[in-house]
Specification:
Length: about 325
């Protein structure tokens, strides 16, 4: 049985033994292990069934730790870190030689993030090594935003979930790297493009595999429920075309006509984008439990966090 507990010392003890602990962050739960232990890092890839070409994000608790990992901390990266850390921003920086290749999938860069979750920051302060943590879900499945999501994925094979409650932001961090000193967004996420550009000006977005072979995690199919999922603009038309099916709807707000379907889940009753992001994965987890024929998600307005949510919905439906 996987222990679900708030005991930081227990979590630290397990990590020191080169075992894994799922940790809460403000985005999603992560599956953490010591970056200097090949044993621990291999366990992360095995438990997630994640291919080794997909690098991991190192989680830090202080700005000084960046220089343990990176050979350069460009001006724009520093401005972003000042503005958003602790928070939902991952910076891709040129790595030091002694950062293990397993973490970076052999790349010359390393992903770094300071999460905004007091329990996890306190855990990190208690360790004399750094930890890496991908989202705590099997490869391509929906990311976990509750301790119980993690437990249901890995019960028995994982020793402990550090229970930090529900993840406040609910979708993964925004990932930013640098190409010829220009900022490039490799993954849309919890911090909107509008917020990023308000700090460093215009950025390039390379949010898919074709544009960014260097961000191998941006697979087309990802974050996916087991139930067939569709992203549509016209819900009524879709329902008419699929009469007789058990349909679960994922709607943006309560402002809509009556739909004759099995279940309706709301991302936000008032159409609030931040609330919608925070509920997205839990709503998908819930619908996926209902033995439906299909899940139908409504496209959100394509600005601010709506862009990031639409990105996740698109990947859930391919
Ligand atoms: O919000 C988050 O970022 C969560 C929490 C747990 O911190 N973590 C997370 O990790 O989403 P993961 O492994 O599920 O996604 C990390 C993404 C992957 O797409 C990976 O390819 C990319 O980050 N990545 C990591 N290091 C990279 C690097 N050096 N260069 C390019 N992409 C990198
Ligand atoms: Mg992930």
């Amino acid at each position: 049985m996987t222990l679900v507990s708030k005991d930081i010392l227990k979590a630290a003890e397990i990590l020191k033994r080169e075992e894994l602990v799922a940790i809460p962050t403000e985005t999603v739960y992560g599956l953490a292990g010591n970056i200097y232990s090949d044993t621990a890092i291999k366990k992360i890839f095995e438990m997630k069934k994640r291919p080794f070409f997909n690098p991991l994000i190192v989680h830090i608790h202080s700005m000084e730790q960046v220089m343990e990992l990176a050979v350069d901390f460009p001006e724009k990266a520093q401005q972003l870190a000042q503005a958003f850390w602790p928070g939902s921003l991952t910076l891709i920086l040129p790595k030091k030689n002694d950062v293990p290749d397993l973490i970076t999938a052999g790349k010359d860069t390393v992903g770094i993030r300071m999460p905004q979750h007091e329990l996890t920051l306190e855990l990190l302060r208690n360790l004399d090594f750094l930890v890496a943590a991908p989202s705590a879900n099997p490869f391509t499945h929906i990311s976990p935003t509750k301790a119980l999501h993690v437990k249901s994925y890995f019960n028995g094979s994982l020793e402990m979930v550090l229970d930090g409650g529900d993840c406040e932001n609910g979708i993964e961090s925004t990932i930013i790297g640098f190409e010829n000193e220009k900022a490039v967004v490799y993954r849309l996420g919890s911090i909107s493009l509008e917020d990023i550009t308000s700090i460093i000006g215009p950025v390039t977005v390379k949010n898919n595999k074709e544009q960014a072979p260097n961000a191998p995690g941006m697979l087309e199919k990802h974050y996916a429920p087991r139930t067939a999922t569709y992203l549509v603009d016209d819900i009524s038309e879709f329902i008419d075309q699929h009469a007789g099916k058990k349909i679960g709807l994922l709607l943006h707000s309560t402002d809509h006509p009556d739909y004759a379907v099995t279940q309706v889940n709301y991302l936000s009753k008032t159409g609030h984008l931040k609330e919608a992001a925070s509920r997205l994965y839990n709503a998908m987890h819930e619908l996926d439990q209902l033995d439906l024929d299909m899940i139908v998600a409504q496209r959100l307005p394509d600005h601010d966090l709506g862009k990031s949510i639409n990105d996740r919905l698109k990947r859930a439906t391919k």
